[in-house]
Design the sequence.
């Protein structure tokens, strides 16, 4: 399974000239912990996350060191801390060294990247431009089924099924389902939909059942539906 199979394609992004307060509001309203910063060509130039907004003058949480660590800190470190806590624009607080992956990066490799670098998400690029994002939430739902498993001939079928299902749901006003909550493995559709009503869940299952090639639909908050 590759990044393209599990990534969220509709990515919330910000411009480096956006205000810190606007980004904080965006994260709070969307219930996300970080967003890519892109230029006018949709190329990733940074990431801004909750961690970048942790030490702020507005909330009285500026980074404080003991007096002896303060004395040992370089002027460059102190200046960087000041920019992080007082800068008004995204470009002042964003992390510039961003780890990126491509659509064909293996899920197992992404898991290692997230763990070893202690990050929560990686942007996915194609020809240098942002096309998606893979977060820990995406991987938690599929990692147990995929890590260390060899690629198999059903991957293309799985991708086609997921793309068709997402297209169908996008056209339905009732289907407010995040792409991250739908995965396909060996032509089995896995739905992570505990926050939906029973009627919405059933409609979601019906939509999945109608996609050619689907063997089974599994609502992770309910029963499995085996297609005859």
Sequence:
């Amino acid at each position: 399974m590759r990044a393209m199979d599990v990534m969220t394609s509709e990515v919330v992004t910000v411009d480096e000239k956006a205000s810190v307060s606007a980004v904080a509001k965006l994260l709070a309203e969307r219930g996300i912990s970080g967003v890519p910063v892109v230029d006018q060509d949709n190329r990733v130039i940074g990431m801004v996350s909750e961690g970048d907004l942790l030490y702020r003058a507005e909330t009285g949480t500026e980074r404080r060191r003991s007096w002896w660590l303060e004395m040992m800190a370089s002027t460059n470190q102190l200046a960087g801390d000041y920019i992080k806590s007082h800068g008004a624009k995204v470009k002042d607080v964003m992390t510039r060294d961003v780890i990126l992956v491509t659509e064909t990066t293996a899920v197992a490799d992404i898991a290692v990247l997230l763990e070893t670098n202690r990050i929560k998400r990686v942007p996915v690029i194609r020809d240098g431009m942002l096309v998606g994002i893979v977060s820990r939430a995406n991987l938690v739902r599929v990692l147990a089924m995929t890590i260390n498993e060899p690629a198999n001939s059903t991957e293309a079928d799985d991708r086609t099924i997921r793309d068709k299902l997402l297209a169908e749901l996008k056209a339905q006003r009732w289907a407010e389902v995040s792409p991250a909550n739908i995965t396909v493995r060996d032509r089995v559709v896995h739905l992570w939909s505990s926050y939906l009503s029973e009627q919405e869940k059933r409609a979601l299952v019906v939509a999945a059942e109608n996609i050619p090639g689907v063997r089974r639909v599994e609502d992770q908050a309910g029963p499995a539906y085996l297609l005859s």
The mean pLDDT is 82. Strands lie at 34-38, 44-49, 101-102, 121-126, 129-135, 182-185, 188-191, 216-219, 224-226. The first strand starts at residue 34 and ends at 38. DSSP finds ten helices and nine strands in the chain.
